[in-house]
Amino acid sequence: MAQSWLQGGPVIPISPFGAAHVAAALASLAGAAVVVIGAELRLPSTAVTIVGALLCFGVRFMAIRRAWRLPVAGAARDFGRP
Q: Is residue 36 part of a domain?
């Protein structure tokens, strides 16, 4: 159970799958950005969708294959403390 921020604990429970979800969300965001930009430029929707899907798949595949990890925000809190 997550502790309240008033008690000094984390608001969101820490999970080993948390970083994987964030990496997948960033890959999806990159693919969606390609589709939106392509739509704004009035490019063919089929081609733009395929490129966006391939980008999303490629980023997720490389993240899994190379074990990419995103920085943790909690690590910055301890910086500079004696």
A: yes
